[in-house]
């Protein structure tokens, strides 16, 4: 029977994710020669070639991908074992590290932490603000236990490394200067705003969400100004420099800005949590997920 070496399998998985031996070595704090030696030894142990030359780089063979498919089940089972052991040793106590995008921190993470302080004071939540792509790198690398992000930037439900938990469909409202002719309307169609100057970031998730929402309504928005922070965006809207889509979860308000509901097909962004597959059985992490769901439900009713 083949002897499976967990450390070497982890090196192979990291190479699959990072793409090069050098990047793998950097991620695992190893030397490139040590990475190559470990993978060469693994190939001898399993009895099949795992790497093949591809120009000046290497790529995984079909056999390597087969090995990894089975290894993912092993990694998930080890996560479950760690989770069960943590539950046995600590019960409801423990530390959970959460990576979350900026507006999710005050809207979801902080209310969840407040609930946990009352219901499970032994659980300590450590929060790290991170953009979507970085959050999943941190999760994959074991630097956080849970990543909060948007569904469009999360791993697909078919990714064997993660479990994805839907939390909230966050409505998008439009911010208009209070003196705008449409500011008094109870409900607007996004297409009615096609000729307006728009304010959104030059790149990143929010730029993509704004463009996708406007394109779904049948137009491409004219970008008058580029900004990523809500303070800057709302200040420009208040000054009459343009309009902007604003997630309701962001809860940003200014006296000179009118927040108008869009309809009938109001655009939404979908907020999800992701965990390494198997880790969701850990009692402390499960309590954090439950608290986040409660916070999301409360926000949805607000």
TrEMBL record:
PROSITE patterns per UniProt: HTH_LYSR
Domain HTH lysR-type: 4-61
InterPro entries registered for this protein in UniProt: LysR_HTH_N (IPR000847), LysR_subst-bd (IPR005119), WH-like_DNA-bd_sf (IPR036388), WH_DNA-bd_sf (IPR036390)
Keyword vocabulary terms for this entry: DNA-binding, Transcription, Transcription regulation
Family: Belongs to the LysR transcriptional regulatory family.
Name the UniProt record assigns to this protein: LysR family transcriptional regulator
Organism: Streptomyces solicavernae
């Amino acid at each position: 029977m083949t002897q499976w070496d967990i450390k070497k399998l982890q090196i192979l998985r990291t190479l699959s994710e990072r793409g090069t031996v050098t990047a793998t070595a950097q991620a695992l704090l190893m030397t490139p020669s040590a990475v190559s030696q470990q993978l060469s030894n693994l190939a001898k142990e399993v009895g099949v070639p795992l790497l093949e030359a591809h120009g000046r780089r290497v790529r995984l063979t079909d056999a390597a991908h087969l090995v990894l498919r089975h290894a993912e089940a092993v990694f998930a089972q080890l996560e479950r074992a760690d989770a069960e052991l943590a539950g046995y040793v600590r019960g409801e106590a423990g530390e959970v590290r959460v990576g979350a995008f900026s507006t999710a921190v005050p809207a979801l993470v902080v209310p969840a932490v407040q609930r946990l302080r009352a219901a499970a004071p032994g659980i300590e939540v450590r929060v790290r603000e991170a953009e979507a792509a970085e959050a999943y790198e941190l999760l994959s690398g074991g630097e956080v236990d849970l990543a909060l992000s948007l569904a469009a930037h999360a791993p697909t439900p078919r990714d064997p490394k993660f479990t994805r938990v839907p939390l909230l469909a966050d409505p998008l409202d439009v911010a208009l200067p209070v003196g705008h002719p449409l500011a008094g309307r109870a409900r607007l169609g996004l297409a009615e705003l096609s000729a307006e100057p728009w304010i959104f970031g030059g790149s990143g998730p929010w730029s993509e969400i704004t463009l996708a929402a406007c394109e779904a309504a049948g137009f491409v928005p004219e970008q008058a100004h580029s900004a990523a922070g809500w303070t800057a965006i709302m200040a420009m809207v208040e000054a009459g420099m343009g309009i902007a889509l604003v997630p309701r979860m962001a809860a940003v308000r200014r006296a000179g800005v009118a927040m108008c509901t869009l309809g009938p097909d109001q655009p939404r962004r979908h907020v999800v949590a992701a965990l390494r597959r198997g880790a969701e059985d850990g009692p402390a992490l499960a309590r954090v997920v439950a608290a986040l769901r409660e916070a999301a439900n409360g926000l949805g009713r607000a």
